[in-house]
Specification:
Number of domains: 2
Shape: globular
CATH architecture of the largest domain: Alpha-Beta Barrel
Largest sheet: 8 strands, mixed
Order of helices and strands: EHEHEHHEHHEHEHHEHEEEHEHEHHEEHH
Structural class: alpha/beta
Bound molecules: S-adenosylmethionine, iron/sulfur cluster
CATH class of the largest domain: Alpha Beta
Radius of gyration: 21 Å
Strand content: 15-25%
CATH superfamily of the largest domain: Aldolase class I
Strand order of the largest sheet: 7-6-5-4-3-2-1-8
Distance between the termini: 29 Å
CATH topology of the largest domain: TIM Barrel
Helix content: 40-55%
Mean pLDDT: 96
Number of helices: 16
Length: 384
């Protein structure tokens, strides 16, 4: 039997945990430090990559993703030595996607050419807002002008360019987001990630919100309208959503995103990086220490992984459902094993289908556009 991970392919996630400052909404594993010993980090990444290459050799890499934190703060030479270590360990597919997340400050824009020369062929730029007042409220260190310049430069240098915007922000109106999104679509990238602002516990926004001091957040009704309008405008511009928050011209979807949502295998290297690896048909979840200093010392001592847990068949199936339902194309029912054969699951699928929240077609199930807004509730119901 063909191992299921092959439906998603194989990739590598590299986590760079440092940022110039901490944005008030962000709960990613990101840290602000005054000094980074790049040489030590290089040694640690290379050691981990070769450890994994000896454990899962003979795989073809479809995607490498440098995420963060702010990987555009890495020196291009460090990105290059990591990519060299990866290509020493595995073969890269002809059209491997090599993405790096970049912040649009001038310091980082000046390094775009260096990242390209190092082997990066796709950048994902964190623009977040196309209005300077909101950029300040979001704690960003760049202006709209710099963001435009970053997109223009990136389009000159890289084959593929995406950028992120956050909407449903404080005091944002329907008309305001409509105008901003139209401006964003006019920039002509083939991929856009459009996230509704989430207030995360443990962040500065989370604390302000709990104290009743985060004013002007949209009502649930306005958020739903903003989401629906986002789908309409992006579809009309030829970049329909292929996942809840991700939009692309057909064929320009992020291969790394698709690898996650199709439950491929991936190696996770760096502080807080997660991985999924299949050995002889048994799938394992891997985790690493969250704190940069802990991960660094573990990796330099020969093992940067802190947890390797075997997933049960039920956990695997549930993960395929949770990931697959995020995608517009849904998930193949025959990947859902015994879950799909259970009578109560079929009843729930029918009920949700009758409510217009789910569809079933050509051996796949997926969530309709009205269901997507309440995906978590649908998953809770299906997995109860
Ligand atoms: C790893 S983060 C950021 C990468 C890069 N450091 C940056 O700031 O551009 C990836 C994306 O998640 C989104 N994001 C992070 N926190 C969010 C939140 N609380 N609500 C909505 N989107 C969020 C942002 O759009 C961000 O660009
Ligand atoms: S949004 Fe990006 S720059 Fe801001 S703290 Fe998070 S990872 Fe760092």
């Amino acid at each position: 039997m063909i191992e299921d991970w092959r439906q998603g392919g194989f990739g590598i996630y590299i986590h760079w945990p440092f940022c110039q400052s901490k944005c008030p909404y962000c709960d990613f594993n990101s840290h602000v430090v005054s000094d980074v010993d790049f040489h030590q980090w290089e040694q640690a990444f290379i050691a981990e990559i070769s450890r994994y290459a000896s454990q899962v050799p003979d795989r073809i890499i479809n995607s490498v993703f440098f995420g963060g934190g702010t990987p555009s703060l890495m020196p291009p030479a460090l990105v290059k030595s990591i990519l060299t270590a990866i290509s020493n360990g595995w073969n890269l597919s002809n059209n491997a996607e090599i993405t790096l997340e970049a912040n649009p400050t001038s310091f980082e824009i000046n390094k775009f050419r260096g990242f390209f020369d190092a082997g990066v062929n796709r950048v994902s730029i964190g623009v977040q807002a196309l209005n300077d007042i909101d950029l300040i409220a979001l704690g960003r260190l760049h202006s709209v002008k710099e963001a435009y310049y970053a997109i223009e430069k990136a389009q000159e240098i890289f084959e593929r360019v995406s950028f992120d915007l956050i909407y449903a922000r404080q005091h944002q109106t329907f008309g305001g987001w409509q105008a901003e999104l139209s401006q964003a679509l006019a920039l002509g990238t083939d991929h856009l990630s459009l996230y509704q602002l989430t207030i995360e516990d443990g962040t500065a926004f989370g604390r302000r919100h709990a104290a009743g001091r985060l004013k002007g957040l949209p009502s649930d009704e306005l958020s739903a309208d903003l989401y629906a309008m986002t789908q309409e405008l992006t579809r009309a511009a030829g970049l329909p959503n292929y996942e809840i928050s991700n939009h692309a011209r057909p064929g320009s979807e992020s291969r790394h995103n698709l690898l996650y949502w199709n439950c491929g295998d991936y190696v996770g290297v760096g502080p807080g990086a997660h991985g999924r690896l299949t050995f002889s048909d048994q799938r394992f979840a891997t985790e690493t220490a969250l704190m940069p200093a802990d991960w660094l010392s573990n990796a330099l001592s020969g093992d940067g992984e802190s947890i390797r847990a075997r997933l049960s068949t039920t956990e695997e199936t549930e993960e395929r459902l949770m990931m697959g339902l995020r995608l517009s194309e849904g998930v193949a029912i025959d990947r859902l094993g015994t879950l799909s054969q259970s009578p109560s699951f079929s009843i729930k699928i029918n009920d949700l289908g009758n409510m217009g929240l789910l569809w079933m077609k050509g051996g796949r199930i997926g969530v309709s556009s009205s269901g997507r807004i309440i995906l978590n509730a649908i998953l809770r119901e299906l997995l109860a």
